[in-house]
Write a structure and sequence with these properties.
The protein is of the alpha/beta class. It has helices spanning 2-18, 43-48, 73-80, 98-105, 121-132, 165-168, 172-186, 196-203, 238-246, 257-262, 278-283, 296-300, 306-336; strands spanning 23-26, 56-60, 64-68, 85-89, 111-114, 137-140, 161-162, 190-193, 205-206, 218-223, 227-231, 249-252, 268-271, 289-292. α5 (121-132) links the parallel β5 (111-114) and β6.
Amino acid sequence: MQQTVKERIRALRMMLKSEAISAFIIPSTDPHLSEYVASYWKTREWISGFTGSAGTIVILKDKAGLWTDSRYFLQAAQQLEGTDITLYKEMLPETPTIIEFICQNLLPGETVGIDGKMFSANQVEQMKQKLETANVHLKDYGDLPGKIWNNRPDMPDAPAFIYDLKYAGKSCEEKIASIRTEIQKQGTDGLFISALDEIAWTLNLRGSDVHCNPVIISYLLITQNNITFFVSPQKITEEIKNYLEEQQVSIQPYSETEDYLRKLNIKSISLNPNQTNYAIYSAINPACRINHCNSPITLLKAIRNEQEIAGIHAAMRRDGIALVRFLKWLEEAVVSEKETELS
């Protein structure tokens, strides 16, 4: 594994050299800025060998560093051993920030590369401002590591499924009507949604694209007249297709989201720049005014209806039963002295 990591970093450095890039930043997220991601986007894990859920690697011409938090100090030290990647322990007084590290190691006029889909629009603007004080430039080069990632896992393509109204409590039609009311209050013509949980809630759809997260890799655009669902065609079964038609939701390929936004023909759009990746944000037609705001869906879905509350209660009962069964087993197992903390 150690030599493999070195080979991967060496291959990326050759690519950076050909593009005149002095540093490249790779975080742990995906185009939806999710905390938990599908295997396809575990680029930081692939190139560093560090398997923790949180961390960012910075690769320079002659050195590399990985930043992670205290949950992973021991694990990261073990997994990075022999890789020539230096561990930087976040939140310790002696640890430089990523931007400080870059400014200390790059010369004025040099360039830092990122994949703009892995950072929010706000993050990129903040990094640009800080780097420019040292005359260091930040540029979106897209998914450069993906070009050298052999045997990369496929994009998630499991079919979506309908979340039954008896659990959702409100129909997709009702939710869209509430969202449109909020869009009207904001004084814009539409709302662009990147957060996967908000899309699942709005459409009453679920998926299995991310382990332990019932979401569908997708984007959603809601205007007063149209609803556009950007999703991989493989996820749309005949049942889902008919359901979306009933809800007056049109489907566009996930891979063509940016092209669609470049041609967007509305005067204004609302979005959250902390939840929208930089590449998507940059693709929006310049003639369309962008209104920075929190997504209205965040508060709408926070107010639980009767069916949702009943569902939470049912889940808690099932969870309580499971816990009591485990505690009963544990009391008996401890007496036998055959079980350890690890087992």
